[in-house]
Design goal:
Chain lengths: 161, 161, 161, 161
């Protein structure tokens, strides 16, 4: 059976609101609740590596992600990540051979009624099950090469360079 | 830019409840509202061919679908379809060359809070954007060859034969 | 602390879709999941008396409901009920003294994203906590006397006679 | 027909996430979208007076709210408000005679799947339609006298003193 390994590192997709603090922080990996509530026919394992807004990630964080991806026995990997620096992380991973890695995230927290989280995770699952290898960004329903795309912050979409 | 043509033919994914009739019928293509509310970066066009429960589909219906798929200028095609006979329709389409066709649907109507519709449409989008050609079934987060899968009605999932 | 007894007897509010049967039946009391997921500061107990579409209810069913309401020790009672004959049941209960009973239901199943179920249950809770006694219908954000209202099936709303 | 005037002044109930700013601010009155999507049988008018987190409200803000409530021709009034200082505002309004005012809000933004917003607005509607006059707090499914309750920040619920 198909097996997919999922690493979660934070980002808007996992942001939750804490009334007591009157603020908004990265919480549990939302992909856990999303996949947990769906009729799924593939095996998967979710591992939380970080809980960071991607603007707060540094080289050490990206090296940690890279090490886990390189050492992972499973060939198909999805990474849920903040959208602001998802491309940087994609570039850092792009020399890992013989794996199919798809990074995704969301423009709105999974907890929002209007969130793109469930759709994006679906796109990532469809892509990682169909592509042979390489590192890819799955955002806004498109599959991008991290070296040839950028996040258009004004329009709130990823686009090809 | 990537363009995807989407044909909707009915199924549970589009079932809605009519209080006045105290019953449950196939309504508008739910994929319209689903994609319409998301930050999407590909062009798409939705065409409703039928509004049928797939148990009510016959050879004439499948021939209609086949004709539209064969004559469609767009290479990438998604079909939202009832899950009960999605595999039959997939087989009927499987000799169409030079297109990438992905059939999907849902076990629960898109209008349900717990529906798999959004996730499945995401998987179909990810698959049709990644696969080169051929006809595929995208259900339960897996991509299947219609000649080598079946719907396990007891478990409510599609599985490989 | 305030305590509310909730009887559920069926209706559209509790209708769920069974893919294996390709049909739609009254399921578990949805008020259980609705209140169970909210930060509630009153005590409540939910008892399922029936699981019927209210068009299928007969005098024996209404007598059963009446008996439970009359024998209930808690003064404040909410009944989740099908909308088609909610008024009939309200009339049957209207001679019970010294209780405050509010009947509510929904035009769309609680499981629907667009459902009025949560709002209606909220209205019923607000009403049963504010009214002194008597039997009332809480639908469409209004509180009605069951002897002076009707369900307008064409418009899908309850209105005063 | 019953008419209800609704003033919105901000609070968590209306907080939305802005990806571009990576932050979280009070947005449009969510009660507009909530009531707008339900089958409602009462007339209502929504007026936005402020868009403030209630921790940022001062005496001038409360005086502005008080003035609008006192001058409002409609007898039944709901105010959507931040939960942190809802009680203070309730006290400031409590000498207004001949009106029925119910303040409510939410512990989670209306935009959250798990939000208590819709339920709370329902409770407020049920209460303002049932109570004769006075100023009341409707939170956590309870109706409180603002002079005899407090917000328990640790438990995240309002409780009687």
């Amino acid at each position: 059976m198909v097996k997919i390994k999922i690493f979660s590192v934070g980002g808007t997709i996992d942001k939750v609101y804490f009334d007591k603090l009157s603020q908004y922080q990265v919480g549990f990996p939302s992909v856990r609740a999303i996949l947990g509530s769906l009729p799924i026919a593939f095996r998967y394992e979710i591992e939380s590596l970080l809980r960071k807004d991607s603007l707060d990630m540094d080289d050490a964080d990206r090296e940690l992600i890279r090490r886990h991806v390189a050492e992972e026995s499973c060939r198909r990997i999805i990474i849920t990540h903040g959208t602001d620096t998802m491309i940087e992380t994609g570039k850092v991973l792009s020399d890992i051979a013989e794996k199919c890695v798809v990074l995704t995230g969301a423009m709105e927290p999974a907890n929002f009624k209007s969130s793109d989280a469930v759709f994006n995770i679906g796109v990532a699952v469809g892509a990682v099950s169909s592509l042979s290898h390489g590192v890819h960004i799955a955002m806004n329903g498109r599959i991008f090469n991290p070296w040839r795309c950028r996040k258009n912050r004004d329009l709130g979409v990823f686009e090809e360079l």
